[in-house]
Every structure is written in C-alpha cells, then in structure tokens.
Amino acid sequence: MRAQWSKRRKKEDLIIPDLYLEKNEEMQNRRDLTFLIQEAAFAEKIPFFHILDCDLLADGKKARSIIFLGIPLYEPLLLMEQSIYGTDGESKCTMAQKKVESYLRNFSDKLEILGYNTVIKLPDILPDDEANRLFEMTKTGFVGKNHRFIVEDYGCRNYIGYILSDAPLMGGDYRYPEYDENLCGGCTLCLDQCPGGALKENGFTKERCENYRENSKNQVEIAAKSIRKCDVCYACCPIGTKTRWQSADSSV
Ligand code: SF4
Ligand code: SF4
Asked: How many domains does the chain have?
C-alpha cells in the first residue's frame, strides 16, 4: 500500500509468486479474477489496494480472500463526523468512511455479479485492533504506538476498509516489496499528547478514548450536524510526509 501512482506500471514488472503459476483451470480462474479486480483498482486510481489470500493463513481464517481499499487523509476534515439520514434513519460517519464505503460497495458488487459472497467491513475511527491485525498481515506497513496502521508515505493518516469474500484470489501486490519495519523507535509523541490518557506504552484503552472524544467539551462544531472530534494521535505523528497536516491547531 505504498504511493502507487507515482511510478509507471508495466505488466512485465509483475512477478507472480510460483504458487500461483500452476497451469490448471482453478489457478487460471484465480489469476483472471485477481487481475480483473486489480485492474479495476488501478483504473479508479484507488490509492491503497492489497489482497490477502486467506488460503495461506495458518489460523484465524475469516474468509477465502480479503480485499483492502483505502485513501490517504490529506485533510483532517475527512475525519469530521456527520449525521446522515438514510433508509434506516440517522447514522453518524466520517467523510473518509463514506468515500471508502463507496469503493467497497463497487468491488463487492463486481464479485457478487460473478457469484461470490462478500461482507463489507468499515473499521472504527477509534484505534481498531481487530482491523490492525488484518492490516499487519498484508506486510505493507506496521501498527504504531498510537495503535494506528502506518504506511510509509501516508503515515497513520489513512483510512482503509476491506471486503471478506469467498472468491479465490492471489494475495499480495506484485510490484512492490514487502514493508513492515516499525519506525516508531524512541518517539513517544502520541503517548505524551493523547489528551484522553488512552494511549500508554503498555496499550490502548478504548473506553478512555471514547469518553474523551464523545464529551462535547472536547468537540468542535464545524457546521450543523458536523463535528470534529479528537484526532491528536493522527495529527502529531511525524511519519508520512505526504499527509502532514499543516498546523498544530489542526488538533482539537
Ligand atoms: S489522541 Fe484522541 S483519538 Fe487518539 S487515542 Fe487519544 S483520545 Fe483517542
Ligand atoms: S507519534 Fe511517534 S510513537 Fe506515535 S505512532 Fe507516530 S512515530 Fe510512533
């Protein structure tokens, strides 16, 4: 899930792992289906794209394959929470979640038209350890001390959703080397600055984070039904030059 659009992509650069090169009908179908999905992601210029082949996972198997799609958070306002009225009444979500949800729905439709079953997953905006465990399996980044998934160019300022599916797909992204080195080192900025006391060296306390974010004294109303909640652990992280938010007062 690197900055994929800065480099020209050539088909001959693709190095498909040997295990997907078998010459039989099942593997040919897997290759064709994967390239179809991959080409759709490239055509729509979706910044984060990766596939996990769950057939290769030893345990904790949730599906046959998982497709990850995501966006960089160039602006803190992408995390602004809005009240949206839909067929099921009022719900709250961020612009980032809505954008990624529309990508996921599109890809889920593509697979369902071909007869596969899918389940769309939109992770919480709070640090989400369950989603992080899956993101780490892609070996495209690492989970920082702020309990957010960090990818090299965009840092933790990203939002990634995923589709669980029974479609047989090839895992990986064959153009880029794996990257999962933890770059936090001795930095403790997010631990020092978390205003809710939710981030500590020994872990993340979801209740503290929720209590802080949901307290109206710690929120900024941007417009009617649009609220900016705490995003200090996103804003303060120095990793990710492409998404650096401009000023310290970008945090609540
Ligand atoms: S900085 Fe804010 S959003 Fe991040 S963990 Fe702390 S309270 Fe939660
Ligand atoms: S702020 Fe520092 S310690 Fe926290 S996630 Fe970023 S690099 Fe790691």
From this structure: 1
What's the rounded Cα separation, in Å, for the pair 123 and 159?
8
How many angstroms separate the CA atoms of 78 and 86, rounded?
20
- Counting atoms of ligand 1 from 1, which one is nearest the CA of 230? 2
Q: Tokens 């503290």 label which residue? A: 208
Closest residue CA from atom 2 of ligand 2: 187
State the virtual CA torsion across 7, 10, 12, 16 in degrees, nearest 10: 70
192-243 confidence digits (pLDDT tens): 999 999 999 989 999 999 999 999 999 999 888 889 999 999 999 999 988 9
- Domain range for 203: 1-252
Dihedral sign computed on CA atoms, order 187, 138, 231, 145: negative
Q: Does the Cβ of 236 fall within 6 Å of ligand 2?
A: yes
Neighbours of 116 (CB within 10 A): 18
